[in-house]
# Entry
Amino acid sequence: MLACTRSLTSSVTSALRLLRSNQVVVSGHVQRCLSTQTDGEVRIVQILKEKFPLASSLKVVDISGGCGAMYEIHIESSEFKGKRTIQQHQLVNQALKEEIQGMHGLRIFTDVPKQ
# Structure
């Protein structure tokens, strides 16, 4: 009985730590809740809004669990019109040149708004 109580207490304590750290477990993986943005996400959004003022959609997510090592960017802008995907991604990379130096990885998804 004592071992069962300790195990339950340990599980509850772990769950509370995850809630306090703004993370959840999904399919065995720890993920951050999306209710708040990290400082890195906010900084990247600001940079991209300045570089692509005509962006109709912009989403930046820290997919490294909140540590800032890897981001996923979804951006839709008319400024990409007439450019190949590789050119669109190069524009995003250029805009984030300084930030990319401290990252492990970056996923970029670009699109032109459907008129």
